[in-house]
Amino acid sequence: MKKKKILIVEDESIVALDIKRTLEKLDYEITNTAFDYQGAINSVLSNKPDLILMDVNLGKSKDGIETAKKIKTFEDIPIIYLTAFSDEETINRAIQTKPVSYLIKPFKRDELKSNIMLGLYKNEEIEDIFYDENLLLIGENYYFNKKEDRLYFKSLPINLGSKEVLLLKILLESRGQIVTIKDLESLIWGENSISSSTLRTLIYRLRTKLEYKFVETIPYVGCRIC
């Protein structure tokens, strides 16, 4: 069985070496040990890991949370934060990057092991999903099942009304292109007359279920999915 690859991002070399030795004993492959923001970005680009162990404090460079945010703009890799910071502000910032977990130093080996296993399991679950030709990836773990007419976030279904489903399908079929208000009204309601707010409300409901991501509205023109 192929070893799972882990990137360590830690600015203290002694701590990084200790983590590296622990992971090697657990039979993981270490892609690299990065000590700062740019080193972490370069490491991901050159040898994509299956999981990242990210220290929050990276010395004078951008911190681990900013590093994680940047990485998530081009790769969806599970991240576990390792840090001595437990203040509410730092934790709330970290939560925005949707990490697997947030471990406070010093942590036990078994605690690290179990969290790594959880992160790798979740990652495999998502990757396996996309072998299905009926699935359209929207982005950031959102995808649409064409056969079921159902929206998912990771493996969790998101309930959509029939017209929300139709709107999403229309936008996905014309992905990147603006679909005009007139065309949307015609495709969704046919010849039935609707008020000016009906379409706006429908678009708003779909956007909320996608966490206000992906669907871009162009006032008085239409909308598109990016």
Automatic annotation (TrEMBL):
DNA-binding region: 133-226
CDD domains: REC_DC-like, trans_reg_C
UniProt KW Transcription keyword: yes
Keywords associated with the record: DNA-binding, Phosphoprotein, Transcription, Transcription regulation, Two-component regulatory system
One of the record's GO cellular component terms: cytosol
Domain Response regulatory: 5-120
Residue span, OmpR/PhoB-type domain: 133-226
Organism superkingdom: Bacteria
Entry's Gene Ontology molecular function annotations: phosphorelay response regulator activity; transcription cis-regulatory region binding
GO annotation (BP), single: regulation of DNA-templated transcription
SUPFAM superfamilies named among the record's database cross-references: C-terminal effector domain of the bipartite response regulators (SSF46894), CheY-like (SSF52172)
Listed Pfam families: Response_reg, Trans_reg_C
Chain positions found as 4-aspartylphosphate: 55
Alphabetized InterPro entries for the sequence: CheY-like_superfamily, OmpR/PhoB-type_DNA-bd, Sig_transdc_resp-reg_C-effctor, Sig_transdc_resp-reg_receiver, WalR-like, WH-like_DNA-bd_sf
Protein name (record): Two-component system response regulator
Native source organism of the sequence: Arcobacter defluvii
